[in-house]
Amino acid sequence: MVEQLRPSSGTQNAPRQPRKGTGVLVIGLGRFGSAIAATLDRLGQDVLAVESKPELVAQWAGRIALVEADASNPEALEQLGAREFPVAVVGVGSYLEASVLITGNLVDIGVPQIWAKAISNEHARILQRIGAHHVVLPEADAGARVAHLVSGKMMDYIEVEDGFTIVKMRPPKETQGFTLAQSKVRERYGVTVIGVKSPGVDFQYATPETRISQNDLIIVSGHAELLERFAARP
Question: Domains in the chain, please, with CATH?
């Protein structure tokens, strides 16, 4: 049985209920899933969370739109209208069987975009094979990002997909005082400076005439290996 939870006593505003055909279905309210659900709700997005553990249901009741259900049961997903959501996030990672069953159920009912959390590369491969569109390894991704940040001049690091990465960094000395056309960053290093943030000045998209200064921050895109080499320049 799927039970719609109501705000607990003392809650001033009931959580928004997602409109039909919109919103994000978030399954599992562990640290990963609850962070996604709470952030989406704070941003004004329609979100419906699904959780089977009573203690987590009690913790989040009245704070976000929430149902208590076992999403590994296809009938439960049908009852809560999962097929009406354009996006679903499977935040159940620690329990491999449940993660695979839930993801498979979402694939079977035809959810257009399925994001799933994995806890290992093997887990990720299974989720991809059964049809998850996006697989996230939060700990591995965070570890790789921090490693890049502590090892050099990179101040932020976002790997988008298939090695394509965007970083925020200090400019190498050989680019300082020159325009991008003069320093030929793209030709020499295979990366693209897409923007510059100078102290006290708004962010600006880069052009060949953009001049890089010592105190600037630059936003650079390209393959991760090429960016690492560029960032390693003195």
Answer: 3-136 (3.40.50.720), 142-231 (3.30.70.1450)
Q: Which amino acid is it at 39?
A: T
Residue 225 CB contacts under 8 Å (≥ 6 apart), including other chains: 163
The parts of the chain modelled with pLDDT lower than 50 are: 1-14
Say how many C-beta atoms besides its own lie within 10 A of residue 199's C-beta: 8
> What's at 9, amino acid-wise?
S
DSSP 75-118: HHHHHTTGGG-SEEEE---S-HHHHHHHHHHHHHHT-SEEEEE-
213-233 burial code (b ≥16 CB/10 A, e <16): eeebbbbbbbebebbbebbee
> E strands along 118-191, which residues?
134-136, 154-161, 164-169
Cβ contact 149:156 at 8 Å: yes
Per the CB < 8 A criterion, the answer to whether 206 and 195 are in contact is: yes
- Give residue-wise pLDDT tens across range 83-92: 999 999 999 9
Tokens representing residue 140 in the block: 């591995």
What are 204's strand-pairing partners? 196
Q: How far apart are CA 28 and CA 206, in angstroms?
A: 42
CB atoms within 10 A of CB 129: 9
